[in-house]
From TrEMBL:
It comes from Acetobacterium malicum. InterPro entries: GAF, GAF-like_dom_sf, P-loop_NTPase. Gene3D superfamilies: 3.30.450.40, P-loop containing nucleotide triphosphate hydrolases. Residues 324-455 form the GAF domain. This is GAF domain-containing protein.
């Protein structure tokens, strides 16, 4: 267990960054010291009693606000319970000189500064600074006014407070000294970091308000571009534009169902984490000064081309301090992306079902990760599968000359595959458990030098993995949709699976349908769809999820008897589609109803009506198709034809189906 940056997962760092926004109850004022520390899980247990910034959701002292805190507390507890790093972490210092009852300082000269200090058994330490507070008019002036002048290079009271807080709580820390901050807190973390470079410091900032580039000396500027400093930016977050930035480390996409309000883009809850707890779909970048002068916020590769030996030495140094298996895999992909300039990197795992062996993606470093996680590739389907099942490293300079089908991967990534590398992962040649794959090189194709480097880096990573003695079994999960209550999974359906579920009554069936649609989640329940977690407070996101990814056959049982024309129903559907280029005649022809457009629905035969329902569900290209109860009077034999057709779609990895009987 360790507070070392090389071991902490992104999801653990995000927990620490968000926790600082929940202010301890008044009775805990000034109780925390290095002599009388508080365990991290004790703080988490107090979250529901905490005062809080308006920031974490613009919530008030209401029942809604209380439920919000309970949900975030449950989220923190889940992370803490599964963490290998946070178990022995204690809080050694807490300062909150906000205005109002939630401030814990005796100093009358309040500045709205908030900081938490941490330590572990290995004598590593960390400090965390919060972003802007908005609960008091005076705080608004101090916080946002401070952000404005800080972007111009003015050292504010907050900066002085932050450096004093760091110096006080890092006294006696002999291990790593780490600094974390979000938003304005990231600005403070940057300031402390560049002014304490001679100490064993690292920094991790998310959506940080930049510190003024032009007031830094060359040593400080270069220090921001090293691996000791991470600056994470969520896609489209505007905060980085508050001043000039030349040191962005990674960009992280929001999940596709998130609302695009500033609070969601800038906050913590709308990015995804992979099975290992690292940011999902994040791109490794190191932006250079010259590139940023002409273009902002694009992904750029390393500033300097390194030799093979230099790359390996840098990589070995990077991995030496890592003891966490999740960090080992994620860091390996990050480093390989950086030196090869690949557009995507994927770690595939091998598994087996009733149809035989297959591979599926465990970690994906690509902005299109959400679609890629749907894939399930069999032998003969692309070079990653070939690498796994034949145990051979493969280098494809020109994918157009490669004969194995790659259609599923191509469609999921939304691009033409031009060049690939795949290296098997295994304990030895006879025990291959997966593969590491690179897809497409920026500005060209992969070279033999890239292939040799990826092979050597992968072997180095595997050596460390073997020495760790850790198991991969906990990370095998191929669910598209699952409902979890507390720590228990109450329902799950596998990706591309065909599941039938029987009910004793229509009321029981309707309750289940509402549950898997996210319409009746309880406070301690979560709906997880394609690795993205939804809780009952995310109704807007759940609505967007249902619209984009759910299709319900027989959703409206009265449609069978409607006098509406087929063309009217199809036109209404096409207006809702994400791709409005599909025309009415094309859709009708696909359904076998091109000569029935003017026919009323109640005049269709049962077989024609089934084709209409099936076509309306599949034309939406939803990931999940739910077959509701059979409408009264509909031919059972025709219904079975529908189910058989959907089974074939599942076998083709085109959809996931739940049939409600």
């Amino acid at each position: 267990m360790s507070l070392k940056m090389s071991n902490l997962l992104d999801i653990e760092k995000y927990l620490l960054l968000e926790l600082v926004y929940f202010h301890l109850p008044p009775q805990y004022k000034n109780r925390i010291t290095r002599e009388t520390p508080m365990k991290l899980d004790e703080y988490i247990d107090l979250v529901e009693q905490c005062g809080y910034s308006i920031y974490p959701g613009f919530i008030s002292h209401s029942e809604h606000g209380y439920q919000y805190k309970k949900r975030r507390q449950a989220h923190f507890k889940r992370i803490y319970a599964s963490s290998d790093n946070l178990g022995d972490v204690v809080i050694t210092g807490y300062v909150n000189d906000n205005y109002g009852s939630y401030g814990n300082t005796a100093d009358k000269n309040k500045t709205s500064f908030v900081g938490i200090a941490l330590a572990d058994r290995e004598n590593n330490g960390a400090v965390i600074f919060s972003g802007c507070e908005q609960m008091n008019p005076t705080s608004i002036v101090l916080d946002w006014g401070g952000c404005l002048i800080a972007s111009l290079g003015v050292v504010t009271v907050h900066h002085h407070k932050a450096i004093a807080f760091y110096d006080h709580y890092m006294t006696g820390i002999l291990g790593e000294r780490n600094i974390l901050g979000h938003s304005k807190g990231g600005n403070l973390a940057t300031y402390v970091y560049i002014n304490r470079l001679d100490e064993n410091t690292n920094a991790y900032c998310v959506n940080a308000q930049p510190y003024c580039w032009y007031t830094m000396d060359e040593t400080q500027k270069e220090a921001l571009k090293t691996d000791r400093f991470e600056y994470i930016v969520h896609a489209n977050d505007p905060t980085r534009k508050a001043s000039y930035v030349s040191y962005i480390s990674r960009t992280a996409p929001l999940n596709r169902y998130a609302t695009r309000r500033f609070i969601d883009i800038h906050g913590f809850a709308e990015v995804n984490f992979d099975e290992f707890g690292n940011l999902e779909g994040a791109r490794v970048i190191r932006e250079t000064v010259s590139q940023l002068k002409s273009r902002f916020f694009n992904d750029y590769a390393a500033e300097k081309r390194l030799t093979h030996d230099e790359c390996m030495a840098r990589f070995q140094e990077k991995l030496n301090e890592i003891t966490s298996l999740p960090r080992l895999f994620s860091t390996t992909l990050d480093e390989i992306l950086l030196v090869t300039e690949a557009r995507a990197a994927i770690i595939w795992f091998k598994d087996e079902d009733d149809r035989g062996p297959f591979i599926y993606p465990l970690i994906i470093k690509s902005p299109g990760a959400e679609d890629l996680y749907q894939l399930k590739l069999r032998p003969g389907q692309g070079i990653a599968a070939q690498s796994v099942f034949e145990g051979l490293p493969l280098y494809i300079q020109d994918s157009r000359q490669y004969r194995l089908p790659v259609g599923s991967l191509k469609q999921a990534m939304g691009l033409t595959i031009t060049s690939e590398i795949a290296v098997p992962l295994g304990i030895d040649e006879a025990e291959v458990f997966g593969a590491l794959e690179l897809v497409n090189k920026r500005g060209g194709v992969f070279s033999l030098e890239d292939f040799a480097l990826v092979n050597d880096m992968t072997l180095t990573m595997l050596e460390l993995f073997k020495k760790s003695g850790q198991s991969l079994d906990n990370y095998r999960d191929f669910s598209l949709l699952q409902i979890r209550k507390g720590g228990q999974r109450t329902f799950a359906v596998e990706k591309n699976g065909f599941t039938e579920k029987a009910f004793a009554s229509p009321a029981e069936k309707n309750a289940f349908l509402k549950k898997i649609s996210g319409l009746s989640l309880e406070p301690n329940e979560r709906l997880i769809f394609n690795r993205i977690t939804f809780t009952r407070d995310k109704q807007e996101q759940l609505k967007r999820l249902r619209k984009q990814e759910y299709a319900i056959i027989f959703e409206n049982p009265h449609l069978r008897h409607a006098k509406t024309r087929v063309s009217t129903v199809l036109i209404a559907l096409l207006l809702q589609l994400r791709e409005n280029r599909v025309n009415l005649n094309t859709v009708a022809k696909m359904m076998g109803l091109h000569d029935k457009l003017k026919t009323r629905i109640n005049d269709l035969t049962d077989a024609e009506y089934i084709r209409l329902e099936y076509g309306m569900a599949r034309i939406r290209r939803s990931k999940l198709v739910i077959v509701n109860s059979l409408p009264q009077g509909l031919n059972l034999a025709v219904y079975r034809v529908l189910c058989n057709r959907l089974k074939k779609d599942c076998q083709k990895k085109a959809v996931t189906v739940i049939v409600l009987n």
